[in-house]
Amino acid sequence: MEERYAEETETLRELLAIMNEHDLESIKVKLGDAVYELSRRPPEAAPAPHFPATQAQADSSSVPADANVTKVLAPLTGVFYRASSPDAPAYVDVGDRVEAGDVLCVLEAMKLFNEIQSDDAGTIVRIVPGNGELVSQGEELFWIGP
What is the pTM of this model? Predict the structure, then answer.
């Protein structure tokens, strides 16, 4: 079961890479019995994805948007990962203290893993995307408070 999930995840990543490389709006591929159909939507038209909140994310959602926070934005489009591998601990959790230069997460784009580092010192107040979620350049990843 896990092997099939890993294969499908890899297939989706490859299709996303093809879409990004060729700037495609949509792609539909049939592989055996499976049909994969992906399409981009302008951000204003895209429905908000629903991911079950972890306890840390649920607790952090009560932080007002206008609080004294620095928002860490995705420098590129890619798949957001909180840890270096599935069995490794997360780089950071809500409530953790970080310093400038600390690794917060990795974004996988075109089979390259890009470490995202904090530009500021502070406390992680909110982790916006879910682990394994595709994020676009400019989307919020973390909120760092004083």
Answer: 0.56
In the chain, the domains with their CATH numbers are: 1-42 (no CATH), 54-146 (2.40.50.100)
Phi, psi of 9, rounded to the nearest 5 degrees: -60, -45
- Residue 4 pLDDT exceeds 50: yes
74-85: burial string, b at 16+ Cβ within 10 Å, e else: beebbbbbbeee
Note the pLDDT tens digit of each residue in 10-62. Answer: 777 887 777 777 777 777 777 777 777 777 654 444 444 443 444 444 444 44
CA distances from 43 to 13, 18, 136, 138 (A): 20, 20, 9, 11
Q: How far, CA to CA in Å, does 56 sit from each of 28, 29, 89, 125? A: 36, 37, 15, 9
- CA proximity to 122, closest of 81, 77, 68, 80: 68
Provide the pLDDT confidence category of residue 99 given band limits of 50, 70 and 90.
very high
CB 46 within 8 A of CB 128: no
CA distance 124 to 92: 8
